[in-house]
Design a protein that fits this description.
Helix content is 80%, strand content 0%.
């Protein structure tokens, strides 16, 4: 089963793999509950395959698996670009201190200006993370397996 699960995700980074597996797991678990509930109502006493295995096989065979992989890859790329941009902007600002900052009379004002800039960069990273989470949620909900 581990090899089947690992076939669901093969991203370019561990972070991307985690997001792909998380999305796939939500889709597979949701569908396995549906299969379990459906088989319970059939009251068929035959030996049945656990609903999770059935749902996993259906997910892997469906076009949803590839679509989720590609959508998560794109979302992670957008997130990583946003974070990288924020990091580069911060590093550049710290490397080349602005002229207005050098003219500040006291170190306390200089520190406050630096703190404000750091907060704005953290806010940009937080916004990027929020967008990523919303995108992953949307991807997961849009690629649910159909009821049969």
């Amino acid at each position: 089963m581990q090899s089947r699960l690992s076939s669901v995700a093969f991203g370019s980074s561990p972070f991307e793999n985690i997001l792909q597996l998380s999305s796939a797991a939500v889709i597979v678990f949701e569908h396995s509950f549906y299969i379990f509930d459906k088989s319970r109502h059939l009251q068929d006493q035959q030996k049945s395959v656990p609903s999770f295995h059935v749902a996993l096989e259906q997910y892997i065979a469906s076009p949803h698996a590839a679509a989720v992989r590609e959508a998560v890859r794109a979302a992670v790329q957008v997130y990583e670009e946003a974070v990288t941009t924020a990091i580069h902007a911060y590093e550049e600002a710290m490397r080349t201190s602005p002229a207005w900052k050098r003219k500040l009379p006291f170190g306390r004002f200089n520190r406050k200006a630096t703190d404000a800039f750091e907060r704005s960069q953290q806010e940009k990273k937080s916004q990027a993370k929020e967008v990523l989470i919303k995108m992953i949620l949307e991807i997961t909900l849009n690629h649910r397996l159909p009821r049969s």
